[in-house]
Design goal:
alpha/beta; Immunoglobulin-like; Neutral Protease, domain 2; 7 domains; eight-stranded mixed β-sheet; globular
C-alpha cells in the first residue's frame, strides 16, 4: 500500500502563518489520496505543536496505521477511536478510511447531513474524515485526486499540478480553524472578482447556466454584509455544487446540493444564509458546549432580513412563532442556551426561531445603530476564536452602555416563551377623557418585555409601548375619539405564544402534532399508498376511515386522502375537488380548533411520492399544490395580525357640569404675570391653542414675551437676530441647531415665531444644553466639569415628594430606555425644570413691566411641579396653567385642562432620502422608492452640494431648506456622483415638488 509523505512546509509559508497567528496554534499538515472505486481514502497527518499541551486525538471510523511523536512510535493505546496524550513537537499519523455510497446515502435521508462520501460521482468530506486534535489549528492540505476531478477546500491560496491521470492540489489557509473540508467532483470552474474578492463557481457541466445568477447573488450578499458588518475576511469565496442534497457553509465555501441550486427561491435564501455564515460560524467560531448562538443570529440577518427588506418582516416573525407553536411541546422544550445543533424541527424552532427573535428584541431594545455596532465589535474581538452567548452579551452591554443581564438571562436560561391574554377590555370616560382599560395577564412565571399597543379610533390610530414584567398588569390609556379596536403586538416584535385567532392552519401544525392520524380511504387507497408510507415512517397512526370517531377527531390532527371521504363530509359537508396534480389543504379542526384537518388529493399515484417527500419543506403553508414533483402553488390562510380586541360599543363623552370656552379662559388670565400653556410636541392643535393665547394677549395690548422650551439659552442672540431681521429664517434654524436639538417639525412652531417677529414680541430661550442634562442623567450632577457647572442654576429645589413619586413611577416604566440610576434621572429632570424656571425669573427681573407666556411640554407644567412652582419660588409672581387633556386630569392637573379637537399639521414635503455626514460631506445612504428624489434622478451614494443657493454642509441643512416648501414649487439640487473609475462629476437636477 502506498502512503503519501507529509507535506514539507516552505519556510515562507510557515513564517507567514505563524506571524499572522495571535496564538501559537498547532500547524496541521494533511496529505490524502483516493481510490474512488473502492470508496477509499489514504492519508497522513503531520501536526506541529509549538507548546506542550493536552490533546484528545479522535479518529472515529478511520483505521490508524501508525502514530509517531517526534519520530518515535507513540506507545499510548487507542480506545474507542480516541487517544488522550500530553505532547509537544511533531505528531505523525498514517490512516485510511472507507466511506461507502449506500451507507452514506441512507444516512443522509435520516440525518439530513452527509459528512463523509467517496465515490466516482464525487468526494464530499465535511467532518470526521481525518484525525482530529480538537480546538483550532492552522491547516495546510495536499490532496491527490483522480484525473478529471476538481477539488475545493478552505483556502486563500490554491496550487494545482499534475496531468490527465492525477492532479495534486495544495491548499493554504492562513487562519486558525476547528477543521477543514474537502469537496471534489467533475466540475467546470468559473471565476469573477468583486471588491477584491475572487469568487469561484464549481458547477457540473449541465448546470453552468446557473453561474450568472449565483455570481450576481453572491456579489449582492457580500456587498450587503460588508456594509452591515465588516469587510469579507478572506481572499476567495467558492460556490460549490454537490451531487448530494447538501447545504452547508465553511470558511471560503458555500456547498449547495444540485436540487437546492435549481430550486429558485430556496437557492437564493440558502446562498445568502451561507454567505452570512462566513462571518458567524466561519470567522467567529461557536463555542458549542456553551450553546450555538450563530443559528439564530444568521437566521435573523438572512432569511428574516430579506423579508424585512421587502416589508414583510412581521410575517416572517409570525412564521417563527407558528413554527415554535407547532413543533415545541413541553417534553421537547429546552432553554435556548442549550441549543447546539439543528437535529429536528423542535430544536430548529428553538435554536433558529427563538434565537432569531432574541436578536430582533435585542435590536429593538438597544436601537439599530447600537445593534450593528455591537456586532462589528464582536467580530473584531472574537475573529478566529470561539465565542459564546456571554461574549455576545458583553459586546452588546459595551455598545449600549446598558446592563443586559436580565435580558439574556430571561431569553437564554429559561424554557418557554411568554403566553399573554388580554382580559376585561373596556372603554370608560374618566373625568372627561375617553380611556381604554384592560388587564394584561401572563400565564406562568412572568417575563419582562415591551408590548406594542395600537389603538384604533374613529379619529385615527396611535401606538405606544407597554412595559410588561408582572403576572397581571392593568392599563388605562386615554384616547381621542371612539375606540374601535386595540391591537397588541401587531408587528410581532415579541417572541410569544400566538392567540387562537392568529394561529393559522398550516402543514407544520399537522406534522408537529404529537397526536396525528392518517385516515386510510376505502376507495382510491392505492393512489395515496406512498403518502401513507412516508407519514407512517414519521410516526403517524393509521386508521381506516370507517374506524374514525368524533373522539378521535377531537384528540388528533388528521390527514384525509381524497375529497369524498365520509370523515370530511362529516366535518365540512362538501369539499371542493382541487385542480390537477397533488394538493394538500389544511383546515382548522371543527371539533377542536387546536387541531387541524389536512385534505390530500391527487389525480394519480405518480404525483404523490415526490410531493409526499417534499411536504416537510412547506410547513408554513395552508395550501400547497405540486405537479410532477414541482411546486406550482402555495398559500397561507389569513389570520388575525396581532392580538386584536374589538371595542365596538359607541363611547359617548360625558359633558362636564361646567364648561368654558378658550376665549373666556383667556379673558380670565390676561393679567397673570406668567401664563403656562402646555403642549404635546407633535399635536398641532396644542400649538394652535398657544398661538391663540399669544394673539389674544397682543390684541388686548399686553406687553409680554414668549418663553420657549424648544431653544437653548446659548442661542438667544440668534433668536434676537432673526426677530430683528439681521438673519433670515434658514440661518436662524441653522445657528440654533433646531433640527438637531429639538427635532420636532418646525412647522408646529413657525406661526408662533412669525407672529412674534411681526408684532415685535420677544422670544426667550429657556432650556439648558442637552449634553449637560444627558451627562447628569447618566452619572449625576457631580460628573459635570467646572465649565458645565457654571451653566446650571445655583439653587434647585428637590424637595417636592409628590413630584419625586410621579417621576419614580415614570422611571420604573421606562428605565431601560434611559438612566440606570433613578437619583441621576431625578437630578436631570430637576435641572431641566430649574433651568427653565430660572430663565423665566431672570427675564422678568430684567423686565418687570413684562408678562411671559411659557410654552413647554405638558409634563413640565402639569400639577405645577415642573416649572411653575419653581419659578414662583424664585419671584413670587402669580401664574396660571393651561394643559392639554393628556392622562386622567384631577383638580391639581392644571388651572385649565383643554381638549382641543385634532388638527392635522401643515404638510412638510420631503425628498425621500436618508442622509449621513461622511468625511465632511452629506451623502445619501438610502432613497425611498417612488419618492420625489428618486423620480428626479437622485441616486444612492450621491453627495448633495446645494439646494438652490443654500449650501448643504450638514444633514440638518436639507431639512432646514425643505421645511417650508410647497407642492408645485421648483428648486435645483446639485450633487456629486462618483464616476465609473476615479473622481466625481457634478450633476444638477431641476425638481418640481
Amino acid at each position: 500500500m502506498k502512503v503519501l509523505t507529509p507535506i514539507v512546509l516552505l519556510a515562507g509559508i510557515f513564517l507567514a502563518i505563524t506571524v499572522n497567528a495571535a496564538e501559537p496554534f498547532p500547524v496541521y499538515n494533511l496529505s490524502v489520496s483516493f481510490d474512488t472505486k473502492k470508496n477509499l481514502l489514504r492519508g497522513s497527518s503531520t501536526i506541529i505543536f509549538p507548546e506542550e499541551r493536552k490533546v484528545d486525538i479522535t479518529t472515529g471510523d478511520l483505521t490508524v496505521l501508525s502514530v509517531k511523536l517526534n519520530g518515535q512510535p507513540l506507545d499510548q493505546k487507542m480506545k474507542d477511536g480516541k487517544i488522550k496524550v500530553v505532547l509537544k513537537g511533531t505528531l505523525e499519523i498514517v490512516f485510511e478510511g472507507t466511506f461507502r455510497e449506500k451507507y452514506e446515502k441512507e444516512a443522509f435521508k435520516e440525518t439530513g447531513l452527509t459528512k463523509k462520501f467517496i465515490g466516482d460521482e464525487g468526494i464530499c468530506l465535511t467532518g470526521g474524515w481525518f484525525p482530529s486534535i480538537g480546538g483550532v489549528s492552522l491547516y495546510i492540505l495536499k490532496a491527490v485526486l483522480p484525473g478529471g476531478f476538481v477539488a475545493v477546500s478552505e483556502a486563500d491560496e490554491v496550487k494545482v499540478s499534475g496531468n490527465e491521470k492525477s492532479r495534486e492540489y495544495s491548499f493554504v489557509f492562513p487562519h486558525p480553524v476547528t477543521g477543514i473540508t474537502l469537496i471534489a467532483g467533475k466540475y467546470t470552474e468559473m471565476k469573477e472578482t468583486f471588491n477584491g474578492i475572487d469568487i469561484y463557481g464549481y458547477f457540473f457541466p449541465g448546470d453552468r447556466s446557473f453561474a450568472k445568477t449565483y455570481f450576481e447573488l453572491t456579489k449582492r450578499y457580500l456587498g450587503m454584509y460588508e456594509k452591515l458588518l465588516t469587510p469579507y475576511p478572506y481572499k476567495r469565496f467558492s460556490i460549490v455544487e454537490s451531487f448530494l442534497p447538501a447545504g452547508e457553509s465553511m470558511p471560503t465555501i458555500m456547498l449547495l446540493g444540485s436540487e437546492v441550486m435549481r430550486a429558485g427561491f430556496i437557492a437564493e435564501t440558502s446562498l445568502g444564509h451561507g454567505i452570512l455564515h462566513q462571518w458567524f460560524g466561519s470567522l467567529v467560531y461557536v463555542d458549542y458546549p456553551k450553546g450555538d448562538w450563530s443559528g439564530g443570529l444568521t437566521a435573523y440577518l438572512s432569511d428574516h432580513l430579506y423579508e424585512e427588506q421587502k416589508g414583510t418582516g412581521w410575517q416572517e416573525r409570525k412564521n417563527l412563532m407558528v413554527d415554535y407553536e407547532n413543533y415545541v411541546n413541553p417534553e421537547k422544550e429546552f432553554p435556548l442556551r442549550n441549543f447546539i445543533s439543528h437535529g429536528d424541527f423542535s430544536s430548529g424552532a428553538i435554536g433558529y426561531g427563538k434565537g432569531a427573535m432574541l436578536f430582533h428584541m435585542l435590536k429593538n431594545l438597544t436601537g439599530e445603530d447600537t445593534f450593528y455596532q455591537a456586532l462589528k465589535e464582536f467580530i473584531k474581538e472574537k475573529q478566529f476564536r470561539e465565542a459564546s452567548w456571554d461574549d455576545l452579551k458583553t459586546a452588546f452591554e459595551t455598545a449600549s452602555g446598558k446592563n443586559l443581564e436580565w435580558f439574556f438571562s430571561q431569553w437564554l436560561a429559561r424554557k418557554g416563551i411568554p403566553s399573554i391574554e388580554i382580559r376585561d377590555p373596556k372603554v370608560v370616560v374618566l373625568k372627561g377623557i375617553q380611556t381604554v382599560s384592560f388587564e394584561v395577564i401572563q400565564k406562568g412565571e412572568p417575563f419582562k418585555f415591551d408590548l406594542a399597543l395600537q389603538t384604533r379610533t374613529d379619529e385615527g390610530e396611535s401606538t405606544e409601548i407597554l412595559k410588561i414584567e408582572k403576572e397581571r398588569e392593568r392599563f388605562e390609556i386615554p384616547v381621542c375619539g371612539n375606540t374601535v379596536e386595540l391591537v397588541f403586538d401587531g408587528n410581532y416584535d415579541l417572541m410569544r405564544r400566538l392567540s387562537p385567532e392568529e394561529y393559522p392552519p398550516v402543514v407544520s401544525r399537522l406534522l408537529g402534532d404529537e397526536k396525528r392520524i392518517v385516515v386510510i380511504p376505502e376507495e382510491e387507497g392505492d393512489i395515496y399508498g406512498d403518502l401513507v408510507d412516508v407519514l407512517k415512517g414519521k410516526g403517524f397512526v393509521l386508521m381506516a376511515e370507517s374506524e374514525i370517531r368524533d373522539e378521535d377527531i377531537k384528540k388528533n390532527s388528521l390527514l384525509v386522502p381524497g375529497v369524498e371521504s365520509p370523515v370530511l363530509k362529516r366535518l365540512f359537508g362538501v369539499v371542493k375537488r382541487p385542480d390537477s396534480g397533488f394538493t394538500l389543504a389544511v383546515k382548522k379542526n371543527p371539533l377542536n380548533t387546536s387541531k387541524v384537518i389536512a385534505v390530500a388529493y391527487a389525480d394519480s399515484r405518480e404525483d404523490v411520492l415526490p410531493a409526499a417527500e417534499s411536504l416537510f419543506r412547506y410547513g408554513r403553508y395552508s395550501l400547497i399544490r405540486f405537479k410532477r414533483g414541482r411546486n406550482i402553488e402555495k398559500d397561507t390562510a389569513e389570520t388575525e395580525k396581532g392580538i386584536r380586541v374589538g371595542l365596538h360599543e359607541l363611547v359617548i363623552g360625558i359633558q362636564p357640569q361646567k364648561t368654558i370656552k378658550l376665549d373666556e379662559i383667556i379673558l380670565k388670565i390676561l393679567d397673570k404675570p406668567v401664563i403656562y400653556v402646555g403642549e404635546r410636541h407633535t399635536n398641532y392643535e396644542d400649538h394652535k391653542v398657544q398661538l391663540k393665547v399669544i394673539m389674544s394677549l397682543h390684541e388686548n395690548g399686553r406687553k409680554f414675551a414668549i418663553g420657549m422650551e424648544m431653544f437653548q439659552k446659548s442661542f438667544q442672540k440668534a433668536i434676537n437676530d432673526y426677530l430683528s431681521g439681521t438673519i433670515n429664517e434658514k440661518e436662524f434654524l441653522k445657528i440654533t441647531q433646531y433640527f438637531r436639538r429639538w427635532q420636532y417639525d418646525y412647522n408646529q412652531y413657525r406661526e408662533i415665531i412669525e407672529y412674534a417677529r411681526a408684532k415685535n414680541i420677544p422670544v426667550i430661550a429657556l432650556n439648558i444644553w442637552a449634553e449637560i442634562v444627558k451627562r447628569v442623567a447618566a452619572d449625576g450632577l457631580d460628573a459635570l466639569t467646572d465649565l458645565e457647572k457654571a451653566e446650571i442654576p445655583a439653587d434647585m429645589d428637590m424637595s417636592d415628594e409628590d413630584y419625586r413619586e410621579r417621576l419614580e413611577e415614570i422611571f420604573e416604566s421606562h428605565k431601560e430606555l434611559g438612566s440606570r440610576d433613578f437619583n441621576n434621572f431625578y437630578q436631570a429632570q430637576i435641572l431641566w425644570d430649574e433651568t427653565m424656571a430660572h430663565s423665566i425669573d431672570a427675564f422678568l427681573n430684567r423686565n418687570p413691566d413684562y408678562q411671559m407666556v411659557v410654552l413647554a411640554g405638558a409634563g413640565h407644567i402639569v400639577y405645577g411641579s415642573g416649572i411653575p412652582k419653581r419659578a414662583f419660588r424664585l419671584n413670587g409672581k402669580e401664574y396660571v396653567t393651561l394643559v392639554p387633556g393628556t392622562g386622567v386630569p384631577n383638580e391639581d392637573s392644571g388651572d385649565f385642562v383643554l381638549f382641543p379637537e385634532h388638527i392635522s399639521p401643515p404638510n412638510t414635503i420631503k425628498l425621500g432620502v436618508v442622509l449621513k455626514k461622511m468625511n465632511g460631506k452629506v451623502q445619501i445612504l438610502e432613497i425611498q422608492p417612488a419618492s420625489i428624489g428618486e423620480k428626479a434622478g437622485i441616486e444612492k451614494d450621491d453627495i448633495i452640494i446645494s439646494v438652490d443657493d443654500w449650501k448643504i454642509e450638514d444633514v440638518d441643512d436639507l431639512r432646514i431648506y425643505m421645511f417650508d416648501k410647497k407642492q408645485g414649487e421648483k428648486m435645483t439640487i446639485k450633487v456629486l456622483r462618483k464616476k465609473f473609475l476615479l473622481g466625481y462629476r457634478e450633476l444638477e437636477f431641476n425638481i418640481t415638488l
